[in-house]
Amino acid sequence: MVEIMWHLTGYWTSLTILLVLCLFLRPPGSHASVSYKPNIVLILADDLGIGDVGCYGNDTIRTPNIDHLAKEGVKLIQHIAAAPLCTPSRAAFLTGRYPIRSGMDATNDYRVIQWAGASGGLPPNETTFAKILQQQGYITGLIGKWHQGVNCESRNDYCHHPLNHGFDYFYGMPFSLMNDCQITQPPEKDRVLRTKLWLYSQTIGLAVLTLAIARLTGLVSVTWKIITCFAWFGFLFFASWFSSYGFIRYWDCIMMRSHEITEQPMVVERTTSLILREAISFIERNKHGPFLLFVSFLHVHTPLITTELFLGKSRYGLYGDNVEEMDWMVGRVLDAIDKKGLKNTTLTYFSSDHGGFLEAQGGKDQLGGWNGIYKGGKGMGGWEGGIRVPGIFRWPGVLPADTVIDEPTSLMDIYPTVAYLAGGIVPQDRSYLTALLVVCIFPKTCGMSVAVDSKPNILLIMADDLGIGDIGCYGNNTIRTPNIDRLAKEGVKLTQHIAAAPLCTPSRAAFLTGRYPIRSGMASSNGYRALQWNAGSGGLPVNETTFAKVLRQQGYTTGLIGKWHQGMNCEALSDHCHHPSNHGFNYFYGMPFTLLNNCQKNKPPELDAALQAKLWLYTQIIALAVLTVIIGKLTGLISASWKIVACFALAGSLFFTSWYSSYGFVQYWNCILMRNYDITEQPMKLERTTALVLKEAVSFIERNKHGPFLLFVSFLHVHTPLFTTEKFLGKSRHGLYGDNVEEMDWLVGKILDAIEKEDLKNNTFTYFASDHGGQLEAQEGKTQLGGWNGIYKGGKGMGGWEGGIRVPGILRWPGVFPADTVIDEPTSLMDIYPTVAHLGGGIVPQDRVVDGRNLMPLLQGKVQQSEHEFMFHYCGSYLHAVRWHQKDSGALWKAHFVTPIFHPEGAGACYGRGICPCFGEGVTHHDPPLLFDLSRDPSEARPLSPATEPLFDTVISRIARAVQEHRQTLTPVPQQLSLYNIMWKPWLQPCCGTFPFCWCDKEGDSAHPAL
Q1: Which residues form the Sulfatase N-terminal domain (predicted)?
Q2: What is the separation of C-alpha 204 from the centre of its chain, rounded to a whole number of angstroms?
């Protein structure tokens, strides 16, 4: 029962502030000011009692500035700290979570961090409100006390440091103010323990002295060696504890600016002015906002350092002087906000980390706070005096002035409140109703469709190698795609939807993680830009967080049907480190690899065709050489021994076996179907694969219709060899490729029918796209087997040209997205990650850069411009081009630094060479870069120059600066597509049967009813 009440209390305290504030709002439309991101100023006192402030009933200490703040805003009467001590309370404030959830509680007597040089602190995997706001474009700063740790394992790892927890700028104490920081004050840290240690040291010293005197006088016969050992022991004992406790002022009482120590020890007489100066300077530097400023006062913690201006001025002794000085500092910070005209666009909050410290005394003088009528104080777990604190909000024109709210609220409520105001995501461990009531803060969103208030099902459909020009709704009039066209008619069509890479493996890695492939090691610096084998060791790293992982944590049932192509194993056949099941998918059915010509016996090889031809030629040369030597030996023309001839023959045989054992069995090694970890077909039978994939997708929907579910249908269509069932063969006006596209469209229709049959249409977020553009070089004789990229130059594999990266993007959610809508703003496949994470109630990882942006505001018409200013177009790990969506301008600039050399010249593709290369002799480097304005020249047909474009140099300079800034965000990671990782490894080969005789068929004819 106690546990239930505890959970209920936490639930209501996290909601009430949002609910009650909502009640005071005027009718919709009356607060246009809420439509922007406000500046956020959070002011937190240290050890301040609720009874120390005038507006909370104190008539002896003057706090006019805090009182004025309350007069202009909302005062909370039941504002509760999550813990009655600094470190855990502040951890809860920063994360919105009880300290016990983050490990910031204690099971021993040390309930706060004791040393700046300790290894404990706020874990790096915790997501502070600063991280969320930083991701939303806020400049974030912390001025003052931190007390959440600095380093973990080494002096400069900064794992707990403010800059590792979302703050762009930090100035202040990494630790906490205490008596030890002032020479004239009695020690505060471990006073009892230090007294005992000093007593023990004196006892040891006296014992050594006694022994020495006794030895000199002949009273004892102990050797000098033993006495020396005792003396050394005593010295080491004393040195071991005094080296820490004797130098506390030097070890803990320091000031830092970001990672740099500025004072050691700190000069306490000037600390107040330094903190105030830094806070005001931060506001002035970032007045154009939005910014988050967390002013974490050292006041009113002992030793109550107070400047001459306030000493002896209050009616409550030194403590009162310190409180009044703190109030004056609050006033100066508010003045800085007013001076810059930011008052009406700034949410200001004032509180204390916990109640006053009743035991803080200097002789008979009280040096701690007053907690009003409430029993207890700092450090006392449950008594109200230790946890009930001031809570004041001000936001003119948005929050009602001079208002008192007497409902339970928590310091932890600040987290979801500011996250929402910044356009971020409410934390994962909040009840979904919390996020629902957050929406009510802004009247414009209170009328949102009911569907948004629940977790929708999420259906993601991705084609393989489909060109943007292959679909009717994108301008094709020769291939029929009625189902995809209907999806666009009922939803939103994106016309500048961009893949993060022009090739399968890296593009899909970016889609799954919301991050450029170069960040995860899925970008190649060699000629192999996609995974080559099921038995390779490369793949999507285990430490990457896919959207499937995020949604599964939120209670979604997650499934992947179709192509994976992100790797299987790392070191052992069954470690499954890269497998879909290890990346958040509850269920997987499909190809762990990708479809390719080698999967169909009558097709020319596709996997490393050029290399295979060379290897076969070398084998023939070796065989011919061996045969020549044998004939020469038999005819007596050569005198070589048969032993040498046999060695040559064996070498040739081993050479042939070594490469043919992999390439000669591609159909068996790579073309397999799996259900979770079990192989069901090896090799797969293409004539029934379409039916199997469709059956599995429909079955998943039927099994999970009570939801919520995530279904990622990753088609094998329309990748070569374009295997198409009899029903669609010869039916299109665009040959075999058109037949395959029309079959894929039919598959889309069947899946949408299954959604509608289960009455899930209105609460299902549906998305359709392709992983990249069509492959222009896919030909068989004179027959074109690849897609059409419309008016856009280039195609699959070409780093920067639009045809390889601009793809269809269609989203439908009846009642939430406007029907038959076209959005011509730059968006990315990576945007799906934060979008579905948000819809599922999850949160994107805060310990890494996520390049995607939440599309919901754009899709719902709340904003008109994409959040993407710059997009970076890589070919492998080589940056080929950058696009700049210039804000407040109609221009869409694109600069090409590197382009492929087409073959034959002027052909528009690299015909006869597979796909275009990323580097080497097959590319051209441009200096200055080729510059296009896609808003005027989407086909990239007319490069600009300084003579034709007055802004040429300005644009190139700005893009160069963006590239530099982007590269500063990249960190070295293991390369998943290194030559070693992509190499075929027999010990990693999935095998149904006894290796190398791998064969099985567990599907039978079960698929045919699906067609």
Answers
A1: 38-423, 456-841
A2: 56
| Predicted local distance difference test score (pLDDT) of residue 658 | 61
C-beta atoms surrounding 12 within 10 Å? 14
Positions of the chain with pLDDT lower than 50, given as ranges? 1-33, 429-452, 1009-1010
What the block records as the tokens of 879 is 């940056």
Per-residue pLDDT at 20: 41
Residue 853 CA to residue 678 CA, distance in Å, equals 36
- Cis, peptide link before residue 900, omega less than 30° from 0: no
Q: What is the pLDDT of residue 642?
A: 81
Cα-based torsion angle of the residue sequence 551, 554, 557, 561 in order, rounded to the nearest 10 degrees: 0
DSSP-H helix ranges across 54-153 = 64-71, 86-95, 99-102, 129-135
Which phi and psi angles does 413 have, rounded to 5°? -70, -20
CA quadruple 356, 357, 358, 362: dihedral positive or negative?
negative
Q: How far is CA 328 from CA 71, 172, 306, 333, 366, in A?
A: 16, 19, 12, 9, 22
The whole-number pLDDT of residue 86 equals 87
Residue 599 carries which DSSP code?
Answer: G
How far apart CA 194 and CA 795 sit, in angstroms, is 73
565 is catalytic: yes
Architecture in CATH for domain 2-185+260-446: 3-Layer(aba) Sandwich (3.40)
DSSP-derived 3-state class of residue 609: helix
Measured in residues, the chain has a length of 1011
Per-residue pLDDT at 480: 97
pLDDT at 963: 97
Q: Is the dihedral of CA 152, 158, 164, 165 positive or negative?
A: positive
* The two structure tokens encoding residue 975: 């390369």
Residue 363 has what DSSP assignment?
A: T
Helix (H), strand (E) at residue 513: helix 504-513
In the chain, the amino acid numbered 61 is I
For residue 587, give both structure tokens.
Answer: 């269920």
d(CA 455, CA 435): 12
The 3-state secondary structure of 805-854 reads HEEEEEEECCCCCCCCEEECCCEEHHHHHHHHHHHCCCCCCCCCCCCCCC
Taking CA 452 as the corner, what is the angle to CA 451 and CA 456, rounded to the nearest 5 degrees? 70
Q: Which two tokens stand for residue 224?
A: 């000098």
Burial class (CB in 10 A: 0-12, 13-18, 19+), 444: middle
- Closest to 473 in 3D by CA, of 485, 465, 490, 460: 485
Measuring CA to CA, how many Å separate 83 from each of 302, 353, 429, 693, 937? 19, 8, 18, 53, 60
Residue 61: in which H helix or E strand, if any? none
Burial of 21 (0-12, 13-18, 19+ CB in 10 A): buried
Q: Which residues contact 557 (CB under 8 A, 6 or more apart)?
A: 586, 587, 704, 707, 708, 709, 710
Of the candidates 504, 599, 875, 991, the residue annotated as catalytic is 504
Question: What are the phi and psi torsion angles at 835 (to 5°)?
Answer: -65, -50
**Among residues 497, 565, 717, 719, which one is catalytic?**
565
